[in-house]
Design goal:
homodimer; alpha/beta; nine-stranded mixed sheet
Chain lengths: 305, 305
């Protein structure tokens, strides 16, 4: 079954201590849509300006992403510039130029409205609402968010949580949203705000799922070299919903394995700048790494060694 | 089979933002020996002063710990005082009074020398060597250490690594020892220093095992309330070796499950000051929590929910 992804479509200029890359393809929807496309057909909703490079359109197309919902508007594409410290967990934003996003109103093509799996990737909660308002009874709604919306659009976000099945957010955001330091207690509080499933992302330390079946502690794939973590969280959410859309059986039965698939796509994302490494990955590389990651949480006697 | 534990036996004065407790039973050997005692008979090697409270001797005895190797010397028991910040990951040492530890030379009772499982808990590497020198071909040697020895006794520690099967250390120590930031690369370098198995502890984020069978990513048990993490790492190592000593089959086949047992005893440790919560735990509580933790890394459909 297919996945609808709404979020930001951006150009990212990224600086790390070792390199800098201007105007990479970025944005939460770009990362999430490419990640989901490894497993299921994807329909994207977003907006870009006239300056948006044609090669990035072709990149979406190579991943079979339906672009009927991608508006091309007069003006500049959303541009984000950020700089990472030696410890790649610390980054600061250098520039945020909203461009065409300033007046974006997502209008869903008719063919999008019955998509069963919906990922509201990180974007203003008002826009996430606006997309949901146009959907016909989706089977699953997954939402991601960021600290910015907790600061400037909390009421919209709280209203959104009542419409969401799975909320994905990072540890800092979970603490900020609940004003609780302990993540076990924070997750309990978030359930009371609406979502049946809460996934707290912890970067290189993996992600924790809280749901009716208890906790699932999903590891991150251990990498010997992290190049650029931008978009890893979006890739995780995209891989997760893509896998769910491709799997037989209910959400509960597949969500744990879906998280491993999300973690693996996120690991490819971290191995290159922007989407450069992710787009070079193949389905069979993803499958191999999922299988390796499963072995890393298995108690069974290892096959080799 | 039985476990020999050598390490520090101390009185700990611990301050957190919520409470303070003077002269608790502490030290790496105390935590590790009590943790191991849930699974196997334990022989302890250490030293205390004349001021060491009788109730703490009785506590060891209640856990069936063989104290033939515990010297009682003229002078004061090793005393450590530390203070935790609101974020319990950050602590600072207020006082370290070595007392009788200053001149400690562990002499193993004859009945200790053929113990098959040896845990060299955190203590000066010279003393760890001294204990190993007195052992007859142990089946397994596990060693823990701390940043202090990396700073002041690195040569002794490097020599020790060639005599050790399993090295347990935390993420900061792994980085300091190898001068490598990435833990995957750091573990590879540590293998080249000797140990066949390397376990990198990451506190609330669990622990990573690197060995001939690849990685095992062991989660920490998620706690809704952490009271005092002092001794959690020692409890982890003690629970791990205790479980190994109790299990049939080889080290490789049991080490992953042994880590879960260590993680569970460490979780009880964190729920009270010093050893207060650990000593109140029962074997069946440990078993239940191990079973819950297994479920939290299992991909199977949860039993309930």
């Amino acid at each position: 079954m297919s996945v609808l992804v709404v979020g930001s479509t951006a150009l990212d200029s990224i600086k790390t201590p070792k390199a800098q890359h201007p105007r990479l393809l970025g944005g939460s929807a770009s990362h999430a849509a490419v990640a989901a496309s490894f497993f299921a057909p994807v329909k994207m909703v977003g907006i870009v300006g006239r300056d948006f490079p044609k090669r990035y359109i072709r990149l979406y197309e190579r991943h079979g992403i339906d672009l009927a919902g991608l508006q091309v508007a007069d003006g500049q594409t959303f541009h984000w510039a950020g700089e990472y410290e030696v410890n790649l967990n610390n980054r600061r934003t250098l520039t945020t130029e909203l461009g065409v996003f300033e007046t974006f109103q997502p209008v869903l093509p008719e063919g999008y409205r019955a998509t069963p799996y919906v990922l509201l990737a990180n974007i203003a909660p008002a826009l996430q609402h606006h997309v949901l308002d146009q959907m016909r009874r989706p089977r699953l709604v997954v939402a991601d968010t960021m600290d910015l919306w907790l600061n400037i659009a909390l009421a919209d976000l709280l209203r959104l949580l009542r419409r969401v099945d799975v909320l994905v957010l990072n540890d800092h955001e979970a603490r900020q949203l609940t004003e609780v330091d302990n993540l076990v207690v924070a997750a309990r509080k978030i359930h009371r705000l609406g979502p049946r499933f809460v996934i707290v992302k912890k970067g290189e330390h993996g992600a924790m799922l809280s749901g009716p079946g208890g906790w699932f502690l999903c590891p991150a794939f251990p990498l010997a070299r992290v190049v650029d973590p931008t978009g890893a969280g979006d890739s995780f959410a995209g891989g997760l919903i893509g896998y769910l859309a491709s799997a037989r059986g209910g959400i509960e039965a597949n969500l744990r394995l879906a998280m491993l698939h999300g973690a693996v796509v996120a690991s490819f994302c971290c191995e290159g700048f922007g989407l450069t490494r992710t787009t070079k990955s193949t389905r069979s590389q993803v499958r191999e790494r999922v299988s390796a990651l499963r072995q890393m949480i298995s108690l069974g006697r290892p096959v080799q060694g």
